[in-house]
Amino acid sequence: MKGDGRLGHDLDPGDRAPQDACGVFGVWAPGEDVSKLTYYGLYALQHRGQESAGIAVSEGSRILIYKDMGLVAQVFDESILGTLRGHLAIGHCRYSTTGSSVWENAQPTLSSSEGGGLALAHNGNLINTAELMERLPAGAIKATTDTEVLTALLAQDGSRPVEEAAAELFPEVKGAYSLVWMNETTLFAARDPQGIRPLVLGRLPGTANVGQDRAGNEKTGWVVASETAALDIVGASFVREIEPGELLTIDERGVRSLRFATPEPKGCLFEYVYLARPDTTIAGRGVQATRVEVGRALAREHPVEADLVIPTPESGTPAAIGYAEQSGIPYGQGLVKNSYVGRTFIQPSQTIRQLGIRLKLNPLREVIEGKRLVVVDDSIVRGNTQRAIVKMLREAGATEVHVRISSPPVAWPCFYGIDFATRAELIAGSLSVEEIRASLGADSLGYISLDGLTQATTIPADRLCRACFDGRYPIPIDQDRIGKYVLEAQR
C-alpha cells in the first residue's frame, strides 16, 4: 500500500470520529473522458469515504473495473485512467459499514449473468442483509458486503431488463441505499423510499460528439452523484434530487423515471451536522448556510460572557461564525490545523501517539492567552478530542473555556450508513450534559437543541431521520441480524 504521509484518526483509535458514509458517482456521456470525470467526481466526494476507491467503465460491449485500497489520488493515476475508456462510468469511495475494509470489499462490485455484466456502487447500509443473503445459492458471493448481495440479486435473472428486476427487488430491500449501477450500455440510479442518503442528478453542458437522438434532438451527458459539490467540480448543472423510491434509467434515449415505492422521506439530519461538504446543497438549502444558522441558534440557546469565539477547525467553523454573529463576541482563529491531516497507512509509534491531538491542532498562544474562550465544534462522540483541546487551551493561557456543540448529544448508533461507536462507547449514551462538562474540564458546555437544529435545516421534523439523537429509527431494526460483520460471521 502506498502511504500518503498524512496523519489521521488512527493516531488515536480510542477517539475515532463518526466515519462517513460512502460517495457514489455515475456519468453517461458519449464522447467525453468519462473515467476522468468520475475521478474528479470521486475527488469531490473523498470526505465520504477514505478506505478504498474504484471506477467501472464500459464502451458498449464489456465492463472494465479498477479499484484498490486507499484515497482516490492514491488508487488512480494518468496511466490507469487512460486505460478506462468508454461512454459511461460509475465510481465509489468507501468507508466500510458492512464488511471489513479489505480489497475484496472495495466497490464497484461486478456480477455477470446470461444477460451480461452489472457493476454497482452503494452509499448507505442495509438492515436486512442476512435475509437477502438467504435468497442466493451457497457460494454465490465472495465478498462480505451488503452491496455484493444486492449486486448478485440484481444480476440473478439476466433474461429480464435490469430496471424491471430492480423495481421488483428494491421494495424488499430494507435500509439506506443510494445506488448507481450500470450494464454495458446503460446507467441506472435509485434511492431508498426514505431517501436517507442524498443523491442528485446533473446535466453536462456542451457534451462533445454526442450527436442526436432518434427525434433529431441534441443528446446530452448526465451525471448522478452523492452531493451537488461533485456536480460542480465536473461542470455539470444541478437538475434535481433523485426522489425517495425512484429509479432512473439513463441511455441514448435520455432519462427515464420509474417509481418502485411510495416515498416516505426521512433524510439524514447528520448530513447537515458533519457528513456533507459545506458547499453542497440539500433540499434547496446550502449546507454552509444551515451550519451558520445553527451557530446563531446555539448562541441564543447557550449565551455566555466571553472575549473570543474560536472553532475547532474545520468542522466547527461555520457554526462558530454564526455564534459570533449572533452573540457579538469577536470571531478568531485560536487553533491551527495541520493542512495534511488525512488518512495514513503508516502505523504511528507510541511516542507519536502520545502527542495526540497536537499532531492535528496547535494553539495560537498570542491569540488566546488571557482570554475567555467559546470553542465551537460539530459533535462529541467519546469526548477524548474535546478533552485534549480544553487542556491544550488552558495550558496556552486561556482563563475560561466554554464548549459549544452544533448538534444535540449523539446518544444512539446509526444503522443506515454512518459507523458510529456503540451506544456504550458514546459519551452521551451514559452521561448527563453536566457529567460530560466535568469530564471535558470545560467551564460550561452547551449543545444545540434537537428542535433548534431541525429548524435550521428548514425541513419538517417528520421528514428527517434523527435517530442518532433521539433513538427513533424510521425503519425497524432487528439488532440480532445486523452488524458490520454479519456476513463474515456466517462463514
UniProtKB/TrEMBL annotation:
<dbReference type="InterPro" id="IPR029055">
    <property type="entry name" value="Ntn_hydrolases_N"/>
</dbReference>
<comment type="function">
    <text>Catalyzes the formation of phosphoribosylamine from phosphoribosylpyrophosphate (PRPP) and glutamine.</text>
</comment>
<feature type="binding site">
    <location>
        <position position="378"/>
    </location>
    <ligand>
        <name>Mg(2+)</name>
    </ligand>
</feature>
<dbReference type="GO" id="GO:0009113">
    <property type="term" value="P:purine nucleobase biosynthetic process"/>
</dbReference>
<comment type="pathway">
    <text>Purine metabolism; IMP biosynthesis via de novo pathway; N(1)-(5-phospho-D-ribosyl)glycinamide from 5-phospho-alpha-D-ribose 1-diphosphate: step 1/2.</text>
</comment>
<dbReference type="GO" id="GO:0004044">
    <property type="term" value="F:amidophosphoribosyltransferase activity"/>
</dbReference>
<keyword id="KW-0411">Iron-sulfur</keyword>
<feature type="domain" description="Glutamine amidotransferase type-2">
    <location>
        <begin position="22"/>
        <end position="253"/>
    </location>
</feature>
<dbReference type="InterPro" id="IPR035584">
    <property type="entry name" value="PurF_N"/>
</dbReference>
<keyword id="KW-0004">4Fe-4S</keyword>
<dbReference type="GO" id="GO:0006189">
    <property type="term" value="P:'de novo' IMP biosynthetic process"/>
</dbReference>
<keyword id="KW-0658">Purine biosynthesis</keyword>
<dbReference type="InterPro" id="IPR000836">
    <property type="entry name" value="PRTase_dom"/>
</dbReference>
<keyword id="KW-0328">Glycosyltransferase</keyword>
<feature type="binding site">
    <location>
        <position position="315"/>
    </location>
    <ligand>
        <name>Mg(2+)</name>
    </ligand>
</feature>
<feature type="active site" description="Nucleophile">
    <location>
        <position position="22"/>
    </location>
</feature>
<keyword id="KW-0479">Metal-binding</keyword>
<keyword id="KW-0408">Iron</keyword>
<feature type="binding site">
    <location>
        <position position="377"/>
    </location>
    <ligand>
        <name>Mg(2+)</name>
    </ligand>
</feature>
<dbReference type="Pfam" id="PF13522">
    <property type="entry name" value="GATase_6"/>
</dbReference>
<dbReference type="InterPro" id="IPR029057">
    <property type="entry name" value="PRTase-like"/>
</dbReference>
<keyword id="KW-0315">Glutamine amidotransferase</keyword>
<feature type="binding site">
    <location>
        <position position="468"/>
    </location>
    <ligand>
        <name>[4Fe-4S] cluster</name>
    </ligand>
</feature>
<dbReference type="GO" id="GO:0000287">
    <property type="term" value="F:magnesium ion binding"/>
</dbReference>
<dbReference type="GO" id="GO:0051539">
    <property type="term" value="F:4 iron, 4 sulfur cluster binding"/>
</dbReference>
<dbReference type="InterPro" id="IPR005854">
    <property type="entry name" value="PurF"/>
</dbReference>
<feature type="binding site">
    <location>
        <position position="465"/>
    </location>
    <ligand>
        <name>[4Fe-4S] cluster</name>
    </ligand>
</feature>
<protein>
    <recommendedName>
        <fullName>Amidophosphoribosyltransferase</fullName>
        <ecNumber>2.4.2.14</ecNumber>
    </recommendedName>
</protein>
<keyword id="KW-0460">Magnesium</keyword>
<comment type="similarity">
    <text>In the C-terminal section; belongs to the purine/pyrimidine phosphoribosyltransferase family.</text>
</comment>
<keyword id="KW-0808">Transferase</keyword>
<feature type="binding site">
    <location>
        <position position="268"/>
    </location>
    <ligand>
        <name>[4Fe-4S] cluster</name>
    </ligand>
</feature>
<feature type="binding site">
    <location>
        <position position="414"/>
    </location>
    <ligand>
        <name>[4Fe-4S] cluster</name>
    </ligand>
</feature>
<dbReference type="InterPro" id="IPR017932">
    <property type="entry name" value="GATase_2_dom"/>
</dbReference>
